[in-house]
Design a protein that fits this description.
The structure is a homodimer of 333-residue chains. The first copy, chain A, is built from twelve helices and twelve strands. The first copy, chain A, has 333 residues and is α/β, with parallel strands linked by helices. Chain A starts with a helix and ends in a 6-residue tail after the last strand. At the A-B interface, helix 4, helix 5, strand 2, helix 6 and helix 11 of A face helix 4, helix 5, strand 2, helix 6 and helix 11 of B. The first copy, chain A, binds a DNA duplex (30 and 30 nucleotides) through helix 2 and helix 4.
Chain lengths: 333, 333
Amino acid sequence: MKYTIKDIARLAGVSTATVSKVINRKDHEITETTRKKVMSIVRQYNYVPNRIASSMVTKKTHTIGLIIPDISNPFFPELARGVEDYASKLGYAVFLCNTDNDAQKEQTYLEKLQEKMVDGIILTASSHRRTNSKDLKESNIPIVALDREIDSFKSGGTVISDNLSGAYEAVSYLLSRGMKKILYLAGPINSKPSKDRLQGYINALEDHNHQVKQEMILDGSFTLDWGYSGTLKAIDQGLEFDSIFCGNDMIAFGAIQAIKLKGLRVPQDISVIGFDDIAMAGIIDPPLTTVKQPNYQMGYESSKILIGIIEKHPPENRELVLNTKLIIRDSVI
Amino acid sequence: MKYTIKDIARLAGVSTATVSKVINRKDHEITETTRKKVMSIVRQYNYVPNRIASSMVTKKTHTIGLIIPDISNPFFPELARGVEDYASKLGYAVFLCNTDNDAQKEQTYLEKLQEKMVDGIILTASSHRRTNSKDLKESNIPIVALDREIDSFKSGGTVISDNLSGAYEAVSYLLSRGMKKILYLAGPINSKPSKDRLQGYINALEDHNHQVKQEMILDGSFTLDWGYSGTLKAIDQGLEFDSIFCGNDMIAFGAIQAIKLKGLRVPQDISVIGFDDIAMAGIIDPPLTTVKQPNYQMGYESSKILIGIIEKHPPENRELVLNTKLIIRDSVI
DNA sequence: AGTGACGGCTTAAACGTTTAATTAACATCA
DNA sequence: TGATGTTAATTAAACGTTTAAGCCGTCACT
């Protein structure tokens, strides 16, 4: 048997309005006596309020949507955790949506979330996002972009890490260690983070009076397989390089495997540097020198901004560019 | 401006009932003419139905809750992905909840999810779950237990992997490779999977006429740190062992680090075998021999069972014990 | 005593849908 | 012609809350 507020009201001998007020802690105009009476009935019958019905009238669902490419990609769990931690702290629940970077799926989720009346959305946009989502900016639901900016419309906020300066720092470090020929094994070239990292690579090289060579820039995907095959291809083609700047850690893992396969050593023969600092970066052999992105914090901050907007006290700064940090381990000589 | 079904009805010159039927594909008693008229208005005004309102009358939210200890623990993303994939295929959205193995948080989420009227819950119970949750079995919301059985009440279904036989196979394999002294670095001893794996360890030893020694069984937590410190302690205490059976892969990673630190080699000096086969298992050096749990499948199947129950066609078998598989790589000699 | 203010409670409308019951229009057929 | 059936639409109640507005009794003050 499921009890409603009416049942409780009847059993406690008061009106539903009164019950509503006590369970929502709008106590101030309620006698202690009636409050206790109501609460005891509530407990006795194990009444659980139907928040769906509340939402109907309050227009708030206390729910947000989190749209990411793939939770089983090691880059995203920390992000998601950050989002959920802040959200649940403020009483919000989080819908998890995986798009696999598919613009179509992304669109479907966006619609579904709107139908479910979420109060806001945190979106790591697919690389292929089209500019046609007029429906999105029309619906007045706040959206904050996470990890990847959205250029197709004005979002309520953006949280990214400083990919450009992170890459700049990584490449500068390689240069400072005496590297002369740095291969850049990039992720998908159409993704914004990739582009920024490429720019960082170029800037660092130029600032240190090194020539940028087109053939030293190879783009693929953010996967171990690409790191592996890309490295193999580079070696087999006779490309000369003393170090690899990898678009992310997964690529670096693949690169290290390929280098080992060729009977070469990391870092003695080839240095490798990654990007992200996912959990495994410190565990592989050799421990990976990499650029740490503050994933948990990025998730947390985006949640904070979004809920700030929802609750009408948006933070003054809604365009966060969080600092990366070079983590020096043993994969660079 | 947000349009409701009433607006659309008015604009299309029909009743709300008619609009409702066309958007829910209850077309069969609707003229093609009116259907088209309605649809054109729907598109023109970009109408998005309020599913919260629907839920009020249908008593279905098409939403499920997923309660796990921690999405940033590498064991869970694949599970979560499996759950979400099947759910979204069937039109359900998934709430993500992290408990950190805290019975209190778990309870809070359980209540919150009930209030949000989820149609069902998938629960990886905290190790410390108390038996007092009468409210849970009273609420008629279906729950399926994932990865860890729930003994405090009868759940709607259970999906686990065969921890006992997985451990048995791992230890038998070690024995077959000539190991004589197998250290068991267990996870938390109060967790069901840990207990089952311990039993598998014991059974394998006994079946092969080896003595089970209490000092060779060390329990801690499912973390890299424990694998590291446990191994160091074992070595420093002068415990003699030629191999380690680890409660999970994280423990194994820690063990390998400790072994290397001591100047010993894996697998030449000490063999290591893990459990789970998380994504990184094949990437570390040496690639880890381990027992694969079908995480994605576990998530997928639990979602299938839950939604089956929700939609009144529960699968005949709701107690799944999925097979593990020994993945042989290079960490055992 | 009459007036006003206030505290504590109730009434009832509203939120945006779905759906059972009903009606209206027409076709069919004896 | 009128009874009957069929089809395509409408009407209106219901889902479980919240909350503005109203009501009633009590108290303080003139």
